[in-house]
UniProtKB/TrEMBL annotation:
This is Phosphocarrier protein HPr. It comes from the Bacteria. It comes from Actinocatenispora sera. Component of the dihydroxyacetone kinase complex, which is responsible for the phosphoenolpyruvate (PEP)-dependent phosphorylation of dihydroxyacetone. DhaM serves as the phosphoryl donor. Is phosphorylated by phosphoenolpyruvate in an EI- and HPr-dependent reaction, and a phosphorelay system on histidine residues finally leads to phosphoryl transfer to DhaL and dihydroxyacetone. General (non sugar-specific) component of the phosphoenolpyruvate-dependent sugar phosphotransferase system (sugar PTS). This major carbohydrate active-transport system catalyzes the phosphorylation of incoming sugar substrates concomitantly with their translocation across the cell membrane. The phosphoryl group from phosphoenolpyruvate (PEP) is transferred to the phosphoryl carrier protein HPr by enzyme I. Phospho-HPr then transfers it to the PTS EIIA domain. Homodimer. The dihydroxyacetone kinase complex is composed of a homodimer of DhaM, a homodimer of DhaK and the subunit DhaL. Belongs to the PEP-utilizing enzyme family.
Length: 291
């Protein structure tokens, strides 16, 4: 059963269809979590756990990941908090892993693909996330999912991490919900095969636009075609909502478009349940949607 959630009223906007739109924050540090509280965020739609891995020379061990994530979670606002499993590779190099820029680049083994290819790294990470979840309830989200078999494998890894913690009698908590990021066109264009196995989906517009336009999100020379492709996102999100709503799966957006006032209005019209953005953008989006 879902937990009772206390959400600041100011952060909720009534949707045209009567549903509530949650305005949440993206968080990558304790300071971000405090900024989310100060900005009146209704929750956290994305905790970027890879920030526990970057900015250091060695990989964090399980205890180090637990202490990083516990501190972030303790500082988060009330309301749902979505922790994303570690999203490495692509534009997110990791000193501790020495990832090849092509094999682990934007079209390579990154995100969930990398975690599934390194079961020990993933198991340690999942144990750390479940241990940190003892601080407060979390929802869990897998990034960069291309096909349903990956989701099934990730769920199996999650079950064995929980089983190993039970066997160790280590304090932990299982997520109250499990979802995926929709940031690869396969999932955005044909979401149906994923829906029976998720409690929610969250659209990563940054990567989705990159793969729709074949324009690298970090290369300024192709920024104009990348931006032109953003116009496709509200339409795809509306299609996603049309597929997901009948089976009771809420659709969130946690990519940068969620924090753009004009796109936020279009995404609201498309029927999203949550927009999650950098905390400083919340006030502008709230004002735009209140109009
Ligand atoms: C996205 O791709 O839109 C997203 C939210 O994830 P990231 O920017 O971390 O890839
Ligand atoms: Mg992404």
């Amino acid at each position: 059963a879902p937990l009772v959630r206390t959400v600041p009223r100011t952060a909720r906007i009534r949707r045209a269809d009567g549903g509530e739109l949650r305005l949440s924050a993206n968080v990558g540090s304790e300071a971000d979590a405090r900024a989310a509280v100060a900005a009146g965020a209704a929750g956290v739609g994305l905790v970027r756990t890879e920030l526990a891995f970057t900015g250091r020379s060695a990989l964090p061990d399980e205890d180090e990941q637990v202490s990083w994530l516990s501190a972030v979670l303790a500082a988060c606002p009330d309301g749902p908090v979505v922790v994303r499993t570690v999203d490495l590779g692509g534009d997110k190099p990791v000193p501790g892993l020495r990832l090849d820029p092509v094999r682990h680049g934007f079209l390579g083994e990154r995100g969930l693909r990398l975690c599934l290819a390194r079961p020990a790294l993933f198991a340690t990470h999942l144990r750390a996330v479940l241990r940190a979840a003892a601080v407060r309830p979390i929802e869990l989200m897998f990034p960069f999912v291309t096909e349903p078999a990956e989701l099934a494998a990730a769920r199996a890894a999650l079950r064995s991490a929980a089983a190993s913690l039970r066997a160790d009698r280590t304090p932990h908590a299982e997520p109250t919900a499990v979802g995926i990021m929709v940031e690869i066109p396969t999932a955005a264009l044909r979401p149906a095969p994923f829906l029976p196995d998720v409690d929610f989906v969250s659209v990563g517009s940054n990567d989705l636009v990159q793969y729709l336009t074949a324009a690298d999100r970090t290369v300024p020379e192709v920024a104009a075609v990348y931006r032109a492709g953003e116009a496709l996102v509200p339409e795809l999100v509306a299609g996603l909502v049309a597929a997901a709503a009948p089976v009771g799966v809420p659709v969130a957006v946690c990519g940068d478009l969620a924090g753009d006032p004009e796109y936020a209005a279009l995404l609201q019209a498309a029927g999203v349940a949550e927009l999650s953005m950098a905390a400083p953008l919340l006030a502008g989006v709230r004002a735009a949607l209140a109009d």
